[in-house]
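User: I'm putting together a teaching handout on how sequence relates to shape, and I'd like one worked example. Could you take tRNA-splicing endonuclease subunit sen54 from Verticillium nonalfalfae, show the sequence you're using, and then write out its predicted structure as tokens right after it?

Assistant: Happy to. First the sequence, then the structure tokens directly below it.
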Amino acid sequence: MPLDDDDNPFLTPSPAPAPLAGKGIASANNGDPDAHDNEDDPADAPFDMALFASMFSKKGVSSQTIRKGQKDFEAHGTRAQDAALETSRRVIEDVLAYTRLHTGDWNRGWLFADYWPAALAELATARPEFVAALDPALHAADRVVVLEELKGPQNRSVGRTVRGMKPPSPAVGKVWLLPEEALFMLERGSLDLWWPDRTLQELMPGLAIKRSRGAMTGGKTTAQRGDDNHSGAPADGEPEADREEEEEDDDEFADGVPLSLQAAYALLIGVEGERGKITLPKYQVYAHLKRGGYHVQRAPAGETATQAAPSPASTQPKSVWQWLFSLLSRPERGRQAPPFGPLVRPGLYRKYAPIYKQLELIPRFDPREKAADTAAPEDPFKVFFHVWRPSKHPIFSKSDPPPPDLRIAVVDARDTFVPELEQLEALFDSTPYDPADASLSAPGRFYPRLKHGHRNVLISVVDRGLVNFMRFGQAAFADEKLYERFDLPNRGRGGKRGGGRGGRGGRGRGGRGRR
């Protein structure tokens, strides 16, 4: 690592990289190469802007140009210090002035925030069955960016195509993005977002319009088409190459203008409930998960618990014959608690199960039963994202995804308190019944079963950009009957010939003595 020369005012920055960095470190530590200075730790040092400058052909930038470590307390008026500061400012300005470029094979998208609400309103009158059959997970009204062509590995989990649209509707078969998807692709450099100056019908016309335009130009000669395109001979005194460059520049911005990242944030980030936009905390959670490699999609609008829980067998007779048989097989009433006296009847008990069954006075909670008067979940304690682990789903279909591995609700730590019991109950009832896997069914793994619960939701708490996750699970402690473990057949030590300690022929005490 280069020597931090803040203590040497007479050392000027060199245009070439500093050789023998190891010697510099040794001299800074009084000749001890094993000494370590925390301020020179590469993990704690700021990012070197000179690396950025070298990426776009900036020559003669020294590794000491951008000053790091402890700064001078005050200016001492030397030329060395002034030159070092000026060189550092110049490199930072060059880095910040770098122009972001997009090649022709990158994704190009157009922002049409108001297209789908108007289109769905027209389709609701002309084709109401089409609007009724739309997938709730599609979120068609919130899709604001249409891509000319989606390229790259993000095609597996980003964007959706609204199926069922027919010509002459524009952008048939094109991929539409949600605000968080477009903003994330723009941040990572996979999208070139443009603001259109033309309508969607003009930019991406339907198939019937394309055929009609082809028929209009099909009967013309090459000269006629050249006249229509203004591609004849150049004017007197005007070079042909200059005219072609001007036409290319004019055609580049004839359909719209590119948007910067700041403009995209202003157009796609909004308040809660604003159509076509997403709040900043929710986008931060989305970007955090996508950078981790997860597949993330919005939860379907108005999601309910679609997976029915296995309800216990009903004891209500449904017919006359069932009622007659129920009289013959009526359950015993001796298990009712006596009005006075001990709860456990005196007697000889060889197992724990009869004792604990007599102690069951209050009906235990059954997670398979859903309350009839459950309220609908309200923001912010409402599932907003469905998440899939890439290791569990190496082949992911965004149009037909499997059941999600995680369900996430997003809250802002600045204006949200700890959820109340009613809010958690409404949140749990909106999720399907999801017990623990069969791998956790062993008697000794009841702690992982309790942690997983029968319904669980992750609540992402965003505190000024810091994303944290808290798991809330609906567990049934009464289902973990620990006393049944003691009623199992004794497999412990001793008791049999050749068994554990103390048995006949065993190694325990009490056997034959040594000879």
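A couple of points you could highlight for students: The longest helix spans residues 79-96. The chain has three domains: 21-96, 107-215+247-278, 279-302+364-486.
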